[in-house]
Amino acid sequence: MLNNMLDFLKQPWHWSIAGVIIGLFVPTLLILGNKAFGISSSMRHICAAILPAKISYFKYDWRKESWNLVFVAGVIIGGWIAAHLLTNPEPVKIADSTKNYLQSIGIQEYGALVPTDLFNWDNLFTLRGFIFIVVGGFLVGFGTRYAGGCTSGHSIMGLSNLQLPSLIATICFMLGGFIVTWLVIPYL
Amino acid sequence: MKEIKDIDTLDFETQSLADAPVEKRTFGSLLKYLILGIGFGIVLVKAEVISWFRIQEMFRLESFHMYGVIGTAVVVGAISVQIIKRFKIKSLSGETIKLEPKPFSKGQIFGGLAFGFGWALTGACPGPIYAQIGSGVTVFIVTLLSALAGTWFYGLIREKLPH
């Protein structure tokens, strides 16, 4: 019985199950602590805690936002649990067309959740790896703060509350992704 | 200084900036957020939301998976918010649940595009960056540090940026 359940959990979860669970984080956080769902602000709190450097944007009491930092610490632990205790032995079943295209741009490793031939420590010191790992990360941090939220804060929390600015932000997230996917990544 | 004050309200995720009541930070009160975070991390990995391949599929319009995850989450979230509003449900500590309207800012366009560029490159939004580190792709520590640098850089130059 327990083994059956564990086997069930080890499979990749269907999008509808994941979507329902992720959506339920919105009322759960509101009811448990009157908190709006949002992840990227944790990065602002980390900056405020570690290197405020007299920048007015980082001068606030980040300790009042500890819940958010505890939440992302939980996400790290959850990532470990899912990858080590609920491991799916199969590679990600991506669309054939995506795989064919990715092979054509030189991506060979499909065994993990990310292409390990792209995201590894050695690759960090190549121009290609630097763009994917470092430049990409910088844009995520800069862009989410400039936009005032990320996929969780705008696309899920904001859209759930029917906010037009969150719809605009979400459209721009997607547009930015389309631009880089179609016009930049094939040439990297 | 007033302008700076105004753009402060544009960060929708940082709530202590508003004069919201802040609950005491006891071990117990924070533990529930740790457990919720663990749950969120598990879903992100098990639904392959943290997969760079899945994000490529999404932006190449070759799979419904990610659209299904995000779309379902929005529908469930929106119904929940409507129920909370309609029945004036209070938080566990008895507070009125506050759902602030979000003012428009050009940052949602420029910042939104910048985040989209980064999302396609790293295959990760902020939540998945943390989950990725936990799952063992340790090079994402560098991605996180770089995202922190990007956040810090925004703080440094934001008064010069259009909002």
Describe this structure in words.
The complex is a heterodimer of chains A (188) and B (163). Chain A has 188 residues and is mainly alpha-helical. Chain A contains eight helices and no strands. Chain A has helices at 2-10, 15-33, 41-50, 66-84, 96-104, 127-147, 151-160, 164-184. The mean pLDDT of chain A is 95. By secondary structure, chain B is an all-alpha fold. Chain B has helices at residues 2-8, 27-46, 52-59, 65-86, 107-122, 126-135, 140-157. In chain B, helix 2 crosses helix 6. Chain B starts with a helix and ends in a 6-residue tail after the last helix. The interface between A and B is large, with 141 and 129 residues.
Strand content of chain B: under 5%
Percentage of residues in helical conformation of chain B: 55-70%
Stretches of chain A where pLDDT is under 50 for at least 5 consecutive residues are none
Count of alpha and pi helical runs of chain A: 8
Radius of gyration of chain B: 18 Å
Keywords for this entry:
heterodimer; A: 188 residues; mainly alpha; 0% strand; B: 163 residues; 7 helices; disordered N terminus
What is shown here, in short?
Chain A is mostly helical and about 190 residues long. Chain A is built from 8 helices and no strands.
Which secondary structure elements does this structure contain, and how are they paired or packed?
The complex is a heterodimer of chains A (188) and B (163).
Chain A: H1 2-10, H2 15-33, H3 41-50, H4 66-84, H5 96-104, H6 127-147, H7 151-160, H8 164-184
Chain B: H1 2-8, H2 27-46, H3 52-59, H4 65-86, H5 107-122, H6 126-135, H7 140-157
Helix pairs in contact in B: 2-6, 3-5, 6-7
